[in-house]
Amino acid sequence: MRGKDNMRSGGEVLVDQLLVNGVRHVFCVPGESYLAALDAFHDRDIAVTVCRQEGGAVMMAEAAGKLTGRPGIAFVTRGPGATNGSPGLHIARQDSTPVIMFVGQVAREMREREAFQELDYRAVFGSIAKWTTEIDDPARIPEIVSRAFHVAMNGRPGPVVIALPEDMLMERVSVGDALAADPIETWPGLTDMSQLQKMLWAAERPIMLLGGSRWSEAACAAATRFAERFAVPVITTFRRLHLFPATHPCYAGDLGVGPNPKVVARIKAADLVILVGGRLGEMPSQGYTLLDIPNPQMKFVHVHPDAGELGRVYRPDLAINAAPTGFAAALEGLQPPNEIRWRAETKAAHDDYLAWTEQPTKQPGAVNFGEIMVWLRGQLPAESIITNGAGNFSSWMHRFYRFSRFATLLGPTSGSMGYGLPAAVGAKRLYPERTVVCVAGDGDFLMNGQEFATAVQYDLPIIVLIMDNGMYGTIRAHQEREFPTRIIATALRNPDFAAYARAFGGFGATIEKTEEFADAFKAAQASGKPAILHLKVDPEAISPSTTLGAIRAKSMAASKA
Ligand SMILES: Cc1ncc(C[n+]2csc(CCOP(=O)(O)OP(=O)(O)O)c2C)c(N)n1
Ligand SMILES: [Mg+2]
Q1: Counting C-beta atoms within 10 Å of the first and last residue's C-beta, which end of the chain has fewer, N or C?
Q2: What pLDDT is stored for residue 5 in this prediction?
């Protein structure tokens, strides 16, 4: 509370600065190191979600950052709280998501004694966060928090860590709030766009790749209109499938793990690649084999909001330092050539996409995750949000589900297991009216499975699908490929996940046959509770396109040859 003397505690100044910046949600695990900030939330209009582990809390904040383009906010306690939060920061870093993690710190006069849970945050988070700092003087909270919002959102977005000495948060000061921070738009220059137009007019087989962050619904719509006017085929990069509507006649597929070989071939054969927003890192570039490094084999246009990414790996013929939002708007001004020579190629690309995804592949076992994804894509409203962590289970979703709206997929391009559940909780907390489905593996789910309690606590009826194959299947597949039959540390003995859901106060069902899925899903929806559908799949069904046995047989045959 503001005193008669206009004084506020550091905690109050901090929370008021969040309000000024439009923050409506924070995710936390409490700690005695930031009591004055917690107290300030007591009578301010920000929803506080208390979580079970800081890893989950920071991932929820990261999901909020992905969904809104504004920093997701987490509060964690010092030492172990901060280190527990680090996986969420790493995701924000690799996925280019704005996040601010506030962390308690020992009192100022105790610093450098290795006081209880003391950490040097600048040293610990130096290479993960975009910026790490500590606030010594409560009068500087508005300035430093304002800078944190700018740093997290601008250029290539990322995580910021701010340490808060506990006595600093208690100190009372008289200071005004900083004005709200807005992301700074970066636009292509006129010459950039006229050069791009010339390159398009000269091309025979252009292709556009969409990735990264700093997109919006309007930017996706503008990119779609451009694709239409130029009839250019569009590919989304790893876990960015929501950037372009899958059923659009220009959509050629996604560039993830185990992509359609025709997508890879098409990019390699293109004479002009326009990469918008992304970095074409190890996963989408198929282990850096797609484009020659440093000089791509085709004409290469790279559009990125951070100049530091341009020319970092691939030397672009045309480098455009712009956010996808600004670039997509500028695309409206380009004129297509009189005759578009690649129309048939674009049609073939979309036909190939449909052929790859139309029908689920045949699988060993009674539960076919592909058939389930095909059922879901016909069933879920377009604005539904799908989340996932890391593991082979996600490949069925990437291949057979169809995204058509911006910010409907929350998946870590950083490949962090355990992301799907907290991301679903965070998404449902922000958008209670939208359907939220988490697609998880048995290994993946239990990395943050405790956050199911958070879903129950806040009455968030998310639906979690756990594809249980009794193993860390992805690693088992790698093992069979590199060291066939020498299985170690990949088998899992799992709980009854449906009973787990019920024990937490949710809805649980076990599914042993594909045909049981639709009724179970509807029952989960009807329950109005957070739900887990435990799908027992055959461990042989390791991906939509191969089996464990086939991987082993192939590597054994290769080692004999
Ligand atoms: C935090 C983290 N730890 C370890 C890994 C390495 N890893 C990648 S996939 C995977 C197995 C995933 O198992 P599961 O969730 O059961 O999915 P499956 O591959 O069996 O479908 C592991 C251990 C990772 N990506 N992230
Ligand atoms: Mg598994």
Answers
A1: C
A2: 77
